[in-house]
Amino acid sequence: MIITSIETYKVAVPLTKPFKTALRTVETAEAVIVKITCDNGITGWGEAPPTHVITGDSLNSVEYAVQQIFKPYLLQKNLLNYEVVFQGIQTILVGNSSAKAAIDMALYDCIAQNCKLPLYHFLGGYRNELETDFTVSVNSPEEMGEDAVQYVKKGFTVLKVKVGKDEASLDFDRIKKIREQVGKDIKIRLDANQGWNPKESIRIIRKMEDAGLNIELVEQPVLAADIEGLKQVTDHVDTPIMADESIFTPKQAMQVLKTRSADLINIKLMKAGGIYQAQTINSLAETCGVECMVGSMIETRLGITAAAHFAASKKNITRFDFDAPLMLANDIVTGGISYEGKRITFPDAHGLGISGIKN
Ligand code: MG
Asked: Is 192 in a helix, a strand, or coil?
């Protein structure tokens, strides 16, 4: 199975409501789409969004990496020796994790199609459906309370609430408001996106614990590079702490796992550089008894289809944050995963099951 062509397209899809976190506000989902074709007629699809503030990648840097670095390397390579190819992708270019992820998912799409299996079966097939949470953007406590009620009415039972944008005391009011509005049976997880410092994190998380707000976990309370601060928070609260922006690579995962600096890990293909590396992070975490969530950036149903195939394949991946496509005003993807409220199911088709992109 020889790679014969690699094409890229840029796409842009508006969101129905701005996605607001401590790090950024997104109104349009932009992405570079990658299409890889092999000599046996198999076509694989990939996607990478620009997430400057998290990965450092832009639309132009992704396109450059794919066209100028990966394309010359990959053309005429045989995908039956895919270990050679994935090792090469990691070594010929430093960083650029989003471009690597787009290439990686397109290659896995081709490989699984050649094996005549849906990708999640090819990777392990642990589950055949998933349930996603839904994100409440950071706004005033009143607006967040109203949004939370709307999402619960739509059938979501796990809310991922964005905090960390202003002073921490306002975050307490936000969560208190949401808990009052949605009742005690809805699971609430928080994501501070690096917005708090360690002491502030400990103070506010303990305050939420004392108030009985019943928070399932808190994602990335402190700065990505502050592993000591992350450990300080993990050591001083009862609520489980999840590392997100602190972990891109297996090496970084090992550092966090070795020092017990977090209780859980959020794996994203755009940080890990694709499924090949994401599997290593999950295996390291599983070895240490640490469960993983798989999340995403603001991506279309193409990127999320790849992430969902990976997430469904492994026992140790127990939480799923795949709401991004539900925030988009239109769907440019043909084939791939289907949503029925919070429930995600997979097509029987081989590979990712994507048959095209409308733009
Ligand atoms: Mg996060």
From this structure: coil
